[in-house]
Design goal:
With 120 residues, this protein is of the alpha+beta class. It is 25% helix and 34% strand. A 4-stranded antiparallel beta sheet has the order 1-2-3-4, with helices on one face. The relative contact order is 0.21.
Amino acid sequence: MRYTIRKRFTFSAAHWLEGLPKGHQCARLHGHNYVVTIELAANGVNSVGMVRDYGDLAKMRDYLDSELDHRSLNDVLKFNPTAEQLAGYLYSLARLWFPETQAVAVEETPNVWAECRRDR
């Protein structure tokens, strides 16, 4: 059996995207109330009956709060902060902290998101 858990986190930040045509709305400084969803999976559960204790995932919340919340992502990150790039970056961090990580999704709005998922 395969078990999957997910947890959501939020943070607010500003950014602009480089390399877009002049006048493109995303080339201007703007902000989002981001929603980050981390997904972990395992073929079984631990002795308590969990894939991982949700409390362990506070490490992601702490990182988002201390490093990204209410910041300009262009000033903090070393890449063009598209939703795709941000999802990939947070996925890499999550995999270091939680080897069971399967995916990280980053929502910029309720209708727009990007996901980085582990290849099967």
